[in-house]
Fold 3-hydroxyisobutyrate dehydrogenase.
Amino acid sequence: MRIGFVGLGNMGLPMATNLFNGFKNEADFIIYDINQTTTSNFLKDHNTDANNKDKVKVAKSPLEVAKEATVIVTMLPASQHVESVYFGKDGLLEGLGENHLVVDASTIDQSMATRVAKVLQEKGAKAVDAPVSGGTGGAQAGTLTFMVGSRSTEDFDVAKPYLEKMGKNIVYCGTNGNGQVAKICNNMLLGISMIATSETMNLGVRMGMDPKLLAGILNTSSGRCWSSEVYNPCPGVLENSAATRGYTGGFGMPLMAKDLRLAVNAAVDTKSTVMLGALAQQLYNQMAANKEFEHLDFSAAYKWLAENSK
Ligand code: NAD
């Protein structure tokens, strides 16, 4: 068996590492990313067996991945990257058939996820959308939550053993595209709660409160949320947070802006009212378009508010 992985970025690299470690006795690997530094690093770290130099191969195109691997995971930034990897020239689609299981773990819009599934299923392949929650820490620890959309629970059962090597909670969300529905809703709430936590921490600090003390009180009171407790945006509150390491790594600002855009577009399509979601989208758009903030983690909302409070 050969397993393929496409998109080895902040999330994909640790996920591919866990998948590799989980199946290294049963499967060989083939990887592809337009960024050759990340594929070379993966190769260097995982192709050390002198007797089996082909354990990990770097493909020249997604098509090569589809030709060589029967199980393929993709972890790409947004819908347009998924479209190009699956349907573009030398894309996955040209090489797929009935022996393939394809898992797209990227966060994309529901309609692209259902289109991918439909086209792949017409070729006989099993296709599931399985976006994740848990951040880069969860990807490294193999504790991600996978929100899985699939045509049937049988397809879900086929995908599950692979997802279990990368995650702790593998949740069936219903038909293809429903994984994205769950993920988009979760991230709208996360985007809003991160801004709310940032506003709260900034206000408390400016009123003279010690940030660690304030966070501790919030986290034993009714204001507690994931953004205040696990991913506090104020530097120094948590030892290993993105905020404490200068907002580097983690979940990039353009990705959160994209997820809020997905939520607002879905709200327009379904005539749903999302006032706070729309406000949050505007703020992340501003930050993602700013040279100083575009490469920072989304929790730099705190830094943005602090700098705009003077
Ligand atoms: P990233 O930008 O760090 O990584 C994306 C990778 O895809 C990069 O290595 C890039 O070179 C590669 N890529 C882009 N276009 C490609 C193409 N055409 N062919 C092959 N490779 C290509 O992004 P990430 O943070 O790893 O996020 C990936 C997905 O996971 C996004 O949809 C994001 O919304 C979602 N997500 C991210 C986090 C997080 O904390 N970073 C958490 C949950 C979900």
Notes: The pocket of nicotinamide-adenine-dinucleotide is lined by residues 6-12, 32-35, 38, 75-77, 81, 84-85, 106-107, 132-133, 135-136, 250-252, 255, 259 (CB under 6 Å). The chain has a mean pLDDT of 96. Residues 182-307 form a domain with the N-(1-d-carboxylethyl)-l-norvaline Dehydrogenase; domain 2 fold (CATH 1.10.1040.10). Residues 252 and 297 are 5 Å apart (CA to CA).
